[in-house]
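Field log, afternoon session.

UNIT: design team B
ACTIVITY: writing a sequence onto a fixed backbone
BACKBONE:
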């Protein structure tokens, strides 16, 4: 008899707990349904969708589930969406783009998926490493689906690969500019020296009618170095200017030769 009373007491407590939980769930569902209607009327469709999903749960009363399912369909149909595509300065697609809508980060990376937003005007900011940010204002109509938004970010995508393209001009324009300046100085020095030795030889030959081989070799060497220096200055200066204006990345080597200068250029775009 005592065991039976204990069992009845346990059953009564369990039933009371279940009844309380059911009442709480029902109240929460009714609040979610009411909230869905309020948000839907205010055109806060993203919040309304979340509320409708909450009152569509299996624990909610059948009537609430039916109403919320109907409202959810209406909200999904009315909810505008955008599809963002970003390009770099070369026209290539970028995916490492963060999208902020009205100051709130929506996504850190583009994957081609549609982004749902409330109808109305929004301030959208697009950010990417090495490219700063681009901002624009969008006015989205209710029910507008998959609106294409193309953003051009002038920077190039960052890469951790040692073989990939590098952003920016790099040191080469300045290095080659320095080489051109030094080469011009060398040209001026050895050119003046060659002219001086030429005058000495002409003076010596005129007075003694004899010019030594060492004098001729010194003149030839000075003239050759002056010519090579001028060639290096022209090539290095031209490459420095082109690199500064075009800003590709690559490896450039300039070396003097007996006929002027040789430039070897490996460029990656």
């Amino acid at each position: 008899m005592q065991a039976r009373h204990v069992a009845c007491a346990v059953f009564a407590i369990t039933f009371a707990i279940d009844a309380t939980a059911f009442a709480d769930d029902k109240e929460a569902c009714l609040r979610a349904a009411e909230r869905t209607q309020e948000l839907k009327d205010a055109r806060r469709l993203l919040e309304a969708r979340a509320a409708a999903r909450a009152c569509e749960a299996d624990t909610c009363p059948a009537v609430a589930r039916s109403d919320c399912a109907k409202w959810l369909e209406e909200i999904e149909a009315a909810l505008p969406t955008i599809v963002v595509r970003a390009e770099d300065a070369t026209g290539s697609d970028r995916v490492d783009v963060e999208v902020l809508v009205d100051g709130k980060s929506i996504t850190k990376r583009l994957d081609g998926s549609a982004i749902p937003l409330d109808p109305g005007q929004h301030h959208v900011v697009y950010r990417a490493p090495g490219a700063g940010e681009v901002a624009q204002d969008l006015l989205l109509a209710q029910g507008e689906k998959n609106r294409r938004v193309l953003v051009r970010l002038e920077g190039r995508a960052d890469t951790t690969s040692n073989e990939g393209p590098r952003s920016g001009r790099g040191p080469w324009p300045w290095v080659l500019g320095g080489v051109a300046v030094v080469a011009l100085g060398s040209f001026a020095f050895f050119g003046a020296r060659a002219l001086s030795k030429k005058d000495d030889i002409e003076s010596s030959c005129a007075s003694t009618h004899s010019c030594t081989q060492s004098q001729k070799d010194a003149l030839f060497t000075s003239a050759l170095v002056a010519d090579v220096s001028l060639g290096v200055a022209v090539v290095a200066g031209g490459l420095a200017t082109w690199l500064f204006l075009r800003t590709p990345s690559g490896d450039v080597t300039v070396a003097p030769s007996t006929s002027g200068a040789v430039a070897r250029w490996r460029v990656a775009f």
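LOG NOTE: Residues 228 and 259 are 7 Å apart (CA to CA).
NEXT ACTIVITY: expression trials, pending approval
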